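User: What would this chain look like folded?
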Amino acid sequence: MEAERMNLYKEVGARIKALRLEKGYTREHMATHIKLSGKFLYEIEFGRKGFSADVLLRIANYLETDCNYIMTGKSNIKENL
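Assistant: Here's the prediction, encoded as structure tokens.
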């Protein structure tokens, strides 16, 4: 069970980091805007720490994605055709 949780943290962190880099944000810039320490955001991105639903929502909003994408890699947002 612990291994599954740690694997999830790593996958989620990697998605957050990839989205942050895609947007061209530094870790410190993003952390300041979502009211986290740079160290805590680093720990999240490298899968060393979990986070609350509140932090998940702040990250998703800042990166302009949905929480489901961050957690599963699948988006709930439907594109308008």
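The chain has five helices and no strands. If you want, I can go into more detail on any region.
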